[in-house]
TrEMBL record:
One of its GO terms (cellular component) is cytoplasm. Residues 146-211 form the HTH luxR-type domain. The modification 4-aspartylphosphate is found at residue 56. It is found in: Cytoplasm. It comes from Metabacillus litoralis. One of its GO terms (biological process) is regulation of DNA-templated transcription. Keywords: DNA-binding, Phosphoprotein, Transcription, Transcription regulation. This is DNA-binding response regulator. Residues 5-121 form the Response regulatory domain. One of its GO terms (molecular function) is DNA binding. It comes from the Bacteria.
């Protein structure tokens, strides 16, 4: 079984040691590197090609938001989970806009962090309950501008958006709608462009906020 390759980016040695100690006990996870700042994290992603990056926000040389954006621009397949002490909107929203697939606080239970890593790799979006309200507030403020955009989507794009809102990966969406993963990727790109969103996490949250989830 292939292991999930994880890169830890945090400027505190104690935090990195603690995460490494616990993650090493997981049979399906392998920590392949550690970064002391955002700049080093970007460099190590290029060199080591991790599946998931655990990213702190407040770091020297380059903060977590800038590092997340840089990583996502050069490698769309890397999943980034923000792991921080900040739960306020001023930190949450920029991180999600930059491309983070998950946002967790450092008080998270170890087992929950492991599940977050596994779920994010499958294409799901994972937010700590304490930050969800900030995301919803942000979406509410922009609802009037974006709600009308839903009409720009085709019938198939709306079906894909519905599946995205359920946290499904491209592979799962393809299976559910009987289309190829390549076609799903194209639809997701179109959805993001039409709704003026930057990633699938924002698309899923947008769909949930606007009640766009059809019943099974």
């Amino acid at each position: 079984m292939a292991k999930i390759k994880v890169l830890i980016a945090d400027d505190h040695h104690v935090v990195r040691r603690g995460l490494l100690f616990f993650l090493k006990t997981q049979r399906d996870i392998e920590v392949i590197g550690e970064a002391k700042n955002g700049k080093e994290a970007v460099e190590l992603v290029t060199e080591l090609k991790p599946d998931v990056v655990l990213m702190d926000l407040s770091m020297p040389e380059m903060d977590g938001v800038m590092a997340t954006k840089a990583i996502r621009e050069m490698n769309e397949t890397v999943k980034i989970i923000i792991l921080t002490s900040y739960a306020d909107q001023d930190h949450v929203i920029p991180a999600i806009r930059a491309g983070a697939s998950g946002y967790q606080l450092k008080d998270i239970e170890p087992d929950e962090l492991v599940e977050t890593i596994r779920d994010v790799l499958k294409g799901e979006s994972k937010l700590h309950p304490k930050v969800t309200s900030h995301v919803m507030t942000h979406l509410t403020l922009g609802a009037n501008q974006k709600t009308s955009k839903i009409s720009d989507l085709t019938k198939r794009e709306k079906e894909v958006l519905n599946e995205l809102a359920k946290g499904k990966s491209n592979k799962e969406i393809a299976s559910s709608l009987f289309i190829t993963e390549k076609t799903v990727k194209t639809h997701v790109s179109n959805i993001l462009a039409k709704l003026q969103l930057s990633d699938r996490t924002q698309a899923a949250l947008y769909a949930v906020k606007n009640g766009y989830i059809e019943k099974e």
